[in-house]
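We modelled the chain as a single entity of 297 amino acids. Its sequence is:
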Amino acid sequence: MLAIPNFSEGRDPHVIAALEQALTATPGVRLLDIHTDPDHNRSVYTLAAVDQHASLADAITAGAARAIDLLDITTHMGSHPHVGMLDVAPIVYMDEAECGSACAQALVLGDRLGNELGIPVFLYGALTDFRVTRADIRRGGPWALQARIEAGELVPDFGPRALHPRAGAALVSARPPLIAFNVELAPPATLQTAQLIAALIREGGAEGLPSVRAIGLTLPHREDVAQVSTNIDDYRRTSPAAVVEAIARHATPLRAEVVGLPPRAAFQDFPEQLAVANRRYLEDALHSVTDSGADND
């Protein structure tokens, strides 16, 4: 079983390292990958429970407590949609046999974040029978979320009915692996180009790809290169290759990147001519930590 907490900090290496230390202090929890991005101002940690007694809920709660010490939602700036410093914390199951355990861990995590740390927690995805999505809760950002709570439009599933003054809110779910996949566009593509393409290709758009969420943005650290940033909720319905093909109908893909660790099968039909940064496979990372754990026992 995995956990993939997303923290709204991708620029300060000391903070990123301190969060890693807190997340991996729980026995039996190993770090598989960190992806940081200064433009999104976000770090994505992939954690694995390498024995049956390891608590991913403990690990993420420790990371969230450290984030409260180090981060402040009121000063955060970044291009990725967010409502909190521990913005999203999914528990990830690799097969259906793990689904029940992952849901239980996610509910324990939500309870601990809400009642121990005072962070309002909203469940989404499978834990809400897919009635609620990340985008539903993030719409308008943290201060819009606070207004919606005060108006009674949204009620946290755990914790107080007010954003934490430093941590904001957190989103928690259990899910199978998704593919966080970004495609940079060759000049002269602009922010408007990226936004138009994202609106066309996301599920529900005019050219909607099933299971695809997409936004368009620019990357100041890459000289304002335009990017289509996607989450592919089910790569068996839409592969990264299909996303690239859809984007290429409107602009030239320049470069792609993967955030986190995708299953190998997600890239089996990917075009070789397009470079993909950070492409490492989940199976290889799991094999590596399992082998190293066996050596250390």
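As a brief sanity check on the tokenised model: The CA atoms of residues 127 and 249 lie 36 Å apart. The chain has a mean pLDDT of 93.
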